[in-house]
Design a protein that fits this description.
The complex is a heterodimer. Chain A is α+β, with helices and mostly antiparallel strands. In chain B, strand 14 (233-242) and strand 15 form a beta hairpin. Classes of the chains: A alpha+beta, B alpha+beta. Chain A: One of its GO terms (biological process) is endonucleolytic cleavage of tricistronic rRNA transcript (SSU-rRNA, 5.8S rRNA, LSU-rRNA).
Chain lengths: 1057, 367
């Protein structure tokens, strides 16, 4: 093959370009000068207006970036991040999870079943959940996902589920979404591969946001994705940051990773369909969970929690933060539903996995299984164990059995707690122990030897004398004690019981409800010492060291001590005499006080700095900064307040905090939940806020989704996903008129928002929702029918429907008519008295009064006279009622394998279709040939009187047809003789000649006259000109004469003077 | 939730309305000679019915069992004829708790007894509760208690206007430093008696308070004609303001006509001043009548830590704390602060700390 020799580039050696290059080469060593300095013209202000505009724009952009600052409520030890792997079937979801788990923990998991929790790093844990191809699961998981790995089959492209899932996410707060393209190895051609990648990427970007991360998993090696690619993906996941979402930060939730049926087996044997008590385990997320709160389990329903307790973390983060990566022991894996962590769930049994092979593996699993193992290992029942157990309070003391404890409880309470010496009775001793327990628990280091009784009594007395433990007083069971006292009932003759109002309890129960706090009269404010006890509460009293005006002044003096008054030249010295004196007095103390002095100096410095900061830094601190700082402070306080409190007590104050592994016991669950349990479907416990468990009317703004191909009909059942819930309800659509009226719509508008009112669970305003028509089955079309947001909650409905009442006149006076057919009774009319009515032809009127007969007829006046053929109608608004259907979607209760077949109430259309009912059309609505009768108009009749008054020409007589001329008046036609004809022709000719001549003469005359007029005009103009000149002359002469006269008169006057 | 007896009747109904939990109260004065609900309680229920929408109330024949299913707080313009057995303060205290959580701003006109010896009077709530509410972020011009007519105890005839804006959520507060009292203000009122009474009250009250602080001003308020109600009486309301904006109040009202011995205005003034000193002795950032109000607002705040320093807890507050735990599952951390050896700032204080329930006003409409 011959290759053409290419011409080499010729460098220029002369000319402007070469010069420039040379110069550059010379200056190359010099530092580059600032662009602004080198070319100031380019940066000068060209237009002030433009400058202002750009400035405004930059400011706008800056402020738009601000979010409303929120208090940072992320827990110190956050719960595992929920990673939902989503995608259409056969796209490689399980494979990806397996690969990621292997990447993080070096373990293989054969079956991905339920959530899998792993420790991915020093500070992060992950929970992987696979989302199956069911819209119920998609909706539930979108609500709890922190990160969504969206798998897309590149060989096929996007599928409808992907778009549906993205739209679900958008409604319920957008989690982080990362796309993953798989099946890239099916492309043989490199060009089509890159083109497909680009196309999919751009489509993904339009859906999520520009520049959203999209991963490419190029091919499979031995049934797994390439290690390097998975590693990269894992790295991305473990450094990802998450934004808090409003719904999740205000509601606690648990993604259950373990379920246990606690129902008594005997009950199940007796009634296999009895309600079950179930305990669910999982990490608490979101916010604090209160004990005994209400939860919603999507797919099951609302339940109140019987008990919540926290357990040791089965998958804890490494205890000590190390510099290096995790070691093998710390890479934990916890997936009880998948059989890792000791348990394997089967349909009717639980298998306990006892790993026997690897010693090291057993060690790993150890902490996770400990609890379960101990549970399994128990042989006796709890009661038996309790009975057998002995409480030994302190080492070395005799153990107490439950019988003893009970005995002690029953022992009489001594009236006076003065028993310093007589503590040999064992009963009393036990009683004391009981009371002292909480005091002493804290103080375990206490020496506990021979003088134990002595010390105990002392402590007890101290305890009694001092104010009682307020916490116990308020929340404890102090109040119940008195009840037992008034139990002695007397019997009268063995028949009747004397029913006495029980003093202590009943009086308290029916006590006066008054918030005023009556003071005890122990203080006599007339006495001086009593008065002085509040002396410092007033500004006139003593101030604290750091707030006292005198000290503050002194400090200021120290800070700004010496200064010279420039005007007078006087030098002010800080007063040090005081200090010197103090030093002289206590020289030894001073040495010890060195530390104190140092602290003082530091304190002073800090205050000075603060003052400086306040003076100079606050200048550009905006409202936003202040707000942010305030939030920061609050967050700090939230974190610190209960930090050092024991967890057992802390959960009572705060509730269970997110990040804890909790066990939630729920009673009265339907038995199908247990019998049809399928770990592939997520179980979520969504906590409900106060009053969110109630049902009411919700007003919402709704828009039909633009990809949904049909508009929605009022009163057709719709499945809504709102808050945690999925439920079927019957919405009524409405639109707000200009006067605030909510007018019912039959259908949703095509491309516009409209209102919707439903009967449903109370959910805070601003919560987004989405609607689907069915959750069962798989459809080719886009299933999300509508999206929207909750606007208002109420217990009544405001929607009205237009109602036209129609009536017909049956008697017409001038402007008054009697109308019938609109109402049925007099009472109905009475309700509408004064209402405005209208005819079809547009004549307005008003209802006046009901007529006695026929019933429902009334008198009405109009602005014009009606015709008998007119139709009168009354426009009114009738309140529409919203059907109270709230039907939670119970998809989790369906049998295994049929969980996506839940079908609720059918729409009317579906019912008709299914039952084969066809509508009979209304006969009036059918088209028929139009038959129009010819109208006859009566002749106009004008009364005689009126006729007389009419002007002559309008008199109807004039307009009457003339009628036939009588015979005698009819004239005969004239027929000319031939001679006569000739004469007439001649006369005609002569007259035309004459006329012509006349015409000619007249034209001539006209021309002459025109000439004459012209002449005359000319003469006239001449004359005028002449006259004007003459007049001018005369006026000039007159003027001069006048002037002369004036002059002379002036002169004469001056002379006179 | 089920309760027994008519004790803490208002607390239960108010908390039920706020939490949306239904309440059943049994055995209301069941052993009493006059069993069942009293007129003032019935009037209170009617008031609740007026400010809410969709409330269901069932009372049995004898009035000893009440079932209350709360609706949504609606607000708006409400006019209520309060029963004269209790003063308007009884009703107003509950409204203060509910008002910020309404759908529309509340404008309530309450008619009845403005001052009586049992309940905190309207004047006291005006000077102590309103500044307290401002600290929780309920401010603006809408917040006001106004005494249009004064009506003294047995017959009443007073009229009070209460307006309050609505808020979406409460701000967390940190009221740990009550500060020192800088001024004392007060109102001495007299209706249908000699206007001189008020002046006599002022003099006697000042004689005690002047020993502590010179900045005292007590207004005299003598209402005449239509705005003076139906019964004679007089009284004094005192409030001490600290440098940190804490208001501590005390009040004394003359005994109602025909009920017990009449009191001299001098004695009344002195008693009231002593009561104020007692209140100062108790101390804290919230005075004893408003303890429960502040605790409720703290509970209904966002999920942040709030702190308030209170004086000794009143029995009413203790009951309220228990009810808050029952309705909202919120427990307060209660720390006692013993007064120091050398400082003379009254008695023992209690620092109440809690994490808010994350409550947001579900009634307010968004547009």
């Amino acid at each position: 093959m011959e290759k053409k020799e290419q011409k080499r580039h010729q460098h220029k050696h002369s000319g402007p370009k070469a010069d420039k290059k040379n110069r550059k080469k010379e200056q190359g060593t010099e530092p580059e000068r600032d662009e602004r300095k080198r070319n100031p013209r380019a940066f000068s202000v060209q237009s002030a207006v433009r400058m202002a505009k750009t400035f405004h724009r930059t400011q706008d952009i800056k402020t738009k970036k601000h979010h409303i600052p929120l208090v940072d409520r992320t827990p110190l030890e956050p719960p595992p991040v929920v990673v939902v792997v989503m995608g259409p079937p056969k796209v490689g979801k399980s494979t990806l999870i397996r690969c990621l788990i292997k990447n993080y923990t070096r373990q293989k998991l054969s079956d991905i079943c339920g959530p899998v929790t792993i420790v991915s790093g020093k500070k992060r844990r992950l929970t992987f959940i696979e989302c199956n191809n069911d819209i119920n699961s998609m909706i539930d998981l979108a609500k709890v996902a922190d990160l969504v790995l969206m798998l897309i089959d590149a060989s096929f492209g996007f599928e409808m589920e992907t778009f549906e899932f993205l739209n679900i996410c958008q409604v319920h707060g957008f989690p982080r979404v990362m796309g993953v393209l798989t099946h890239l190895d099916t492309f043989k051609n490199n060009k089509t591969l890159s083109k497909t990648k680009k196309r999919l990427k751009h489509r993904f970007w339009t859906e999520v946001y520009q520049g959203a991360k999209l991963f490419y998993l190029s091919g499979m090696v031995y049934g797994e994705y390439q290690t390097q690619e998975v590693k990269n993906l894992g790295r991305f996941i473990s450094v990802m940051k998450f934004r808090p979402l409003v719904w999740r930060t205000s509601h606690p939730y648990v993604v259950a990773d373990r379920m246990e049926d606690l129902t008594d087996p005997e009950d199940i044997r007796l009634n296999p369909k009895c309600d079950r008590t179930v305990s669910l385990y999982g990490y608490l997320r979101g916010t604090f969970l209160k004990n005994k709160c209400q939860v919603h389990i999507p797919g099951v329903g609302d339940f109140s929690v019987a008990d919540v307790s926290f357990l040791p973390d089965p998958c804890p983060l490494p205890e000590v933060i190390k510099k290096r990566a995790l070691n093998v022991k710390e890479r934990l894996l916890y997936a009880p539903m998948a059989g890792v962590g000791g348990l394997v769930y089967d349909k009717d049994a639980v298998y306990i996995d006892m790993p026997s092979g690897h010693g090291s593996q057993q060690q790993e699993v150890r902490p996770t299984t400990e609890l379960v193992q101990s549970l399994i290992g128990t042989q006796a029942t709890l009661d038996a164990k309790m009975a057998a157990s002995k409480v030994s309070l302190f080492t070395g003391t005799a153990a107490l059995t439950p019988e003893e404890v009970q005995e002690n409880e029953m022992a009489p309470v001594p009236e006076h707690p003065e028993m310093t010496s007589k503590i040999d009775n064992e009963n009393t001793f036990g009683f004391l122990l009981k009371h002292l327990f909480d005091v002493l628990c804290i103080n375990r280091a206490l020496r506990w030897k021979e003088d134990l009784a002595q010390k105990a009594t002392e402590a007890y007395l101290r305890h009694q004398l001092a104010a009682p433990n307020l916490r116990k007083l308020v929340y404890g069971t102090v109040a119940e004690k008195e009840e037992d006292d008034s139990n002695d009932e007397e019997e009268l003759g063995g028949l009747f019981k004397v029913n006495r109002p029980e003093k202590s309890k009943k009086v308290r129960a029916d006590a006066m409800d008054c918030s005023r706090f009556q003071p005890d009269n122990s203080h006599d404010w007339d006495q001086e010492e009593v008065r002085s006890s509040i002396r410092d509460c007033f500004v006139t009293g003593k101030w604290e060291e750091d707030k006292d005006a005198a000290t503050l002044l002194k400090e200021d003096e120290e800070l700004y001590g010496d200064f010279e008054d420039l005007e007078t030249g006087q030098v002010h010295k800080a007063k040090t005499g005081n200090k010197d004196q103090a030093e002289e007095e206590a020289p030894q103390v001073k040495l010890d006080d060195d530390e104190v002095q140092k602290n003082k100096r530091l304190e002073k410095k800090r205050r000075l700095k603060e003052r400086f900061d306040a003076q100079y830094d606050d200048g550009d601190a905006t409202y936003f900064d202040d707000l942010k700082e305030e939030m920061q402070k609050q967050a700090e306080l939230n974190r610190q307040e209960f930090e050092d409190v024991d967890d057992e007590i802390r959960v009572q104050y705060e509730g269970f905090r997110p990040g804890m592994y909790v066990r939630v016991e729920i009673p009265a669950l339907p038995c199908e939940f247990v019998t049809n349990f399928d770990p592939h479907y997520p179980i979520i416990l969504g906590g409900l806020g106060p009053s969110e468990g109630n049902v009411g009317y919700l007003q919402m703004r709704l828009k039909k989704h633009r990809w949904h191909n049909r508009i929605l009909k009022t009163r057709d059942p719709l499945i809504l996903s709102l808050g945690w819930r999925r439920f079927q309800t019957i919405p009524l659509y409405y639109i707000e008129d200009h006067n605030g009226r909510h007018r019912l719509l039959k259908y949703t508008p095509e491309h516009m928002h409209c209102g919707a009112t439903i009967w449903g669970p109370i959910t805070p305003q601003g919560t987004g929702f989405l609607a689907v028509q069915t959750v069962g089955g798989i459809k080719a079309s886009f299933r999300i029918a509508a999206t929207g947001v909750v606007l208002d909650l109420d217990k009544s409905v405001t929607i009205v429907k237009k109602l036209k009442l129609i009536g017909y006149p049956y008697k017409i006076f001038k402007n008054t008519s009697f109308i019938q057919g609109m109402f049925n009774t007099v009472l109905e009319v009475a309700k509408f008295e004064g209402a405005s009515i209208r005819t079809v032809s547009g004549i307005k009127g008003q209802i006046k009064k009901a007529l006695r007969t026929p019933p429902g007829a009334f008198r009405a006046t109009f602005e014009d006279r009606l015709l008998m053929s007119d139709i009168v109608f009354l426009r009114s608004w009738y309140p529409a009622s919203v059907p109270q259907l709230y039907n939670p979607v119970t998809s989790l209760l369906m049998p295994v394998g049929q969980k996506e077949t839940w079908a609720g109430m059918r729409t009317l259309g579906q019912l008709k279709h299914d039952l084969g009912i066809r509508n009979k059309p209304n006969q009036d609505s059918l088209y028929k040939p139009v038959v129009r009768q010819v109208r006859h108009f009566n002749p106009l009749h004008i009364p005689k009187e009126l006729q007389k008054a009419l002007p002559f020409k309008n008199k109807p007589k004039q307009m009457q047809a003339k009628g036939k001329t009588p015979r005698d008046l009819q004239r005969p036609a004239v027929v000319r003789e031939p001679h006569e004809k000739k004469v007439a022709a001649l006369l005609d000719a002569l007259s035309s000649v004459y006329a012509y001549k006349n015409k000619k003469a007249r034209a001539e005359q006209h021309a002459k006259h025109k000439e004459f007029l012209k002449q005359k005009e000319k003469q006239e103009a001449e004359r005028q000109k002449r006259m004007k000149e003459e007049r001018k002359k005369t006026y000039r002469a007159m003027g001069q004469k006048e002037k002369k006269k004036l002059k002379s008169s002036l002169k004469g006057a001056s002379k006179d003077n | 939730m089920e309760f027994e007896g008519c004790n803490c009747f208002r607390q239960r109904l108010v908390l039920s309305t706020l939490s949306g939990k239904r309440v059943k109260i049994r055995n209301i004065r069941s052993k009493d000679d006059n069993p069942g609900l009293r007129d003032f309680e019935a009037s209170f229920i009617r008031l609740l019915d007026k400010v809410t929408n969709g409330t269901r109330i069932e009372i049995n024949q004898t009035g000893t069992v009440l079932f209350y299913q709360p609706g949504l707080l609606y607000g708006g313009s409400v006019e209520h004829e309060c029963n004269v057995q209790r003063s308007i303060g009884y009703y107003l205290e509950a409204l203060l708790m509910l008002a910020p959580f309404m759908k529309t701003p509340l404008r309530a006109v309450l008619k009845g007894v403005t001052n009586d010896p049992t309940d905190p009077s309207v004047d006291l709530l005006k000077v102590t509760a309103i500044p307290l509410m401002k600290k929780f972020g309920i401010d603006g011009d809408g917040l006001e208690i106004k005494v249009l007519k004064r009506g003294m105890a047995p017959a009443g005839g007073g009229e009070v206007l209460f307006t309050c804006p609505v808020r979406r959520s409460m701000k967390p507060v940190h009221l740990t430093e009550p500060g020192k009292i800088k001024r004392i203000r007060g109102t001495a009122f007299s209706v249908r008696v000699s206007p001189q009474m008020a002046n006599r009250i002022v003099d006697s009250a000042r004689s005690i308070l002047n020993k502590f602080i010179p900045d005292i001003y007590i207004y005299t308020d003598h209402m005449k004609g239509a705005s003076s109600g139906k019964s004679p009486g007089f009284g004094l309301t005192l409030v001490a303001e600290t440098v940190n904006g804490t208001f501590l109040g005390a009040e004394v009202v003359s005994t109602p006509q025909g009920q017990g011995d009449p009191v001299l205005p001098e004695d009344l003034g002195r008693n009231c001043a002593k009561l104020l000193l007692e209140e100062v002795y108790r101390g804290g950032c919230v005075d004893s009548t408003n303890q429960s109000l502040s605790l409720l607002y703290m509970t209904l705040g966002q999920q942040d830590v709030s702190k308030t320093l209170l004086g000794p807890l009143s029995p009413y507050t203790v009951e309220f704390l228990r009810h808050i735990r029952d309705f909202f599952q919120i427990m307060f951390k209660i720390e006692q602060q013993k007064p120091g050896e050398d400082e003379q700032k009254g008695g023992e204080k209690v620092l109440m700390t809690c994490v808010g329930a994350g409550y947001s006003n579900i009634n307010k409409t968004i547009k």
